[in-house]
Amino acid sequence: MGKLQPARGTRDIFGEDARRMEAVTAAFEATARTYGFQLLATPIFEFTEVFARPLGESSDIVTKEMYSFSDRGGEAITLRPEFTAGVARAFISAGMQQSLPVRLMSHGPVFRYERPQKGRYRQFHQINAEFIGSETPETDVEMITMAWRVLESLDIVDKVTLHLNTLGDRESRTVYRDRLVTYFGAHKAALSQDSQRRLDTNPMRILDSKDEGDRVVVEKAPPLDESLTQASLDFYARVEDGLRACDVPFTRDTRLVRGLDYYTHTAFEFITDALGAQGTVIGGGRYDGLIEQLGGPSVPGMGWAGGLERLALLLDAAPSVQRPVVIMPMGDAAVRAALSLAEDLRAAGHTVIADRSGNLKKRLTRAAKAGANHAVILGEDELAADRVTLRNLDAGDQESLPRKALTDRLAAWS
């Protein structure tokens, strides 16, 4: 059998990559908690209809990208391609409408069968936030500002630009849909087959097309702004005003759209060009019709998701880790004593590695490779005197001291 490798589009995450992703997740959780969010862990797989119903049977995600299969019981199952639909399902299943509003944060792996690229894999990871039960523009402001604060806490906010738009209310979108049907209908021959199909189902999805031929046609499509109701304009004005009040800079992007019917009003993306090609690292918007479409009550929602791998790549450096202390028991009698000594040091907040094999020279070499700053040597002589030998691996100095004084000495020496 040949050398085993991860499946295409997946990878093992460890070392610096793991520390970067851990830092992003920690910043997200810490920031979201200051906004009153609670953690929700949804299953990695759901019944296929949970995703197919809101995303649309003809969407690219459903037809080309979802990992779907029948389990042994014959149920249609899908690995989650995104978080929002699963969170909405959990909201309905758990009866959360009894305690509105709810603020939910999630993070973890998602799965899409697509061409692997920098910062994007077939199994990748997202951070996700949903605010369900509030229809005010100030909620949108709060959600966007929270995303901004996450980026700020990671010191990468200067590498992104916030793009903002309004999709209008349902009345606006109905008017706009009719205008798009007229426009794209006149240019149908120039559209891709996928977009020709969307013309009959949801023409707004054509605006999201990545096909180069479609992009040429889309460039001259009528702007959504011309179809907005006064109520939509007023809602959006309050979002802009709120972001200014929170000192969150933004750029109006009238081409930023969401093709799915349940999206309304605010849409936004944090975009960077620091990863090569321009790409979105966080995106979201208001989805006032989603929960109802899944069979739940008519409850408004606002949410966003961020690509964990892409955000991690924006960090200037991987977060540093606490340098370990290595305990080196020399002889069988010292091994047992070293166990309790290591626990004492861990309880005091130190990272401790116990190295119980090889001669002292080999152990010191391994300690240096592990990035340790101190070695605690515990041999027969030290045991007999209830002392330890503490070596500073950076300076090469060492001293003998009572075992009970070790914790205080490490604190003073570090």
UniProtKB/TrEMBL annotation:
Gene3D superfamilies, per database record: Anticodon-binding domain (3.40.50.800), Bira Bifunctional Protein, Domain 2 (3.30.930.10)
GO cellular component: cytoplasm
The enzyme's E.C. designation: 6.1.1.21
GO BP field: histidyl-tRNA aminoacylation
GO MF annotation terms: ATP binding; histidine-tRNA ligase activity
Location relative to the cell: Cytoplasm
Binding residues annotated for L-histidine, in chain numbering: 82-84, 112, 126, 130, 258, 262-263
Superkingdom of source: Bacteria
Protein name (record): Histidine--tRNA ligase
Source species of the chain: Eilatimonas milleporae
Species lineage: Bacteria, Pseudomonadati, Pseudomonadota, Alphaproteobacteria, Kordiimonadales
Gene giving rise to this polypeptide: hisS
